[in-house]
Amino acid sequence: MIFRLKRSLTVSLAVLLLTFGVLLFQNAVVQAQDNEPLTEQMRDLLKSDAFNVGFLLQSEAIFTTDVEGGNVLGEDGFGLGPTRLRFDGNSDRGFAYEMDLELRRSPTVWDASIMYKNSDAFEIETGMHKADIGADLQPGPGKIDFIDRARLINLMTNRREVGVSAMGQIDQFDYTVGVYNGTGRNLNNDGNLMYLLKAGYTFEFENEGSLYVVANGAFNGTVGESIGNLTTTGDRLLYGGYIDYDSDSWFGVVELLMTSFDSIQLTDDETITGAYVTLGNKITETDELLARWDYIGYDQLGTDSSLFILGWNHQFTSVMSLQINGLAQFDEEEEYFGLQGNLQYEF
User: Fold this and answer.
1) How many domains does the chain fold into?
2) Domain span holding position 256
């Protein structure tokens, strides 16, 4: 009883501290966004067409209700989110480059790619970069709607692949075709490649809104991929699509992604279904309110899970922001509740 009371007090204190922090800075927000001389100095020093330096710092916290036997939402306490140092720029005759380092433990190459752009209709990228599958995978970690990406991204896709992507846009139609090792950031390739195809179309509306409709799929022959607690024997199929809506005040995403494969742990093919629905409103120039339903279901294992998130995003300045997420996850007969916070500096 005393332990649960302490946990409730900890969560309440966290909410109060985060709210107080926002109120404390509220009066400075308008001035900071209208007048940011120090940020402009940094842009003058570190941003140009040929060479850009960027970095991302995230200070995170999570507090959860007590659950006997552990909590799938994470351990209570404080931590660092993605901590990145980025270099990119354009070169002569249509070439460009990008290198992204992750610095949380030791410097690790996260992106390393060379691009060539012939026109809007054709561009090619080689090296380590994101495969264009999954709507919530594409934005950088400082640009995603919630503190964590949708679970289908973490479960079914690799954050990076090594290979080559060809992409382009023709009027309102865009495409991506890719061939990769299929082993993620692991450079020890087994010779069984991954092939990707994505097609999208953008509908424009008179109220300055847009609707982006995408179908995508991939085939990965890599043996020994880890998909949750399962391990593939090769020939994994990944397929789905999404709809992304954006306007002056409302935005939202609906995505479905499925994967089918043979597993060494199961006698029959497993099919995993991942889906989420995000709805958000830009209530002011600096504030967004969001809600998400996030679903994962296993066909052969017969288990499923739903995660509900309420979010608030606040922009202090053009480089400083705050995210607060309330979490409620329901796994079969288990329930988990928590509160997350993320204070972010992205330049």
Assistant:
1) 1
2) 2-346
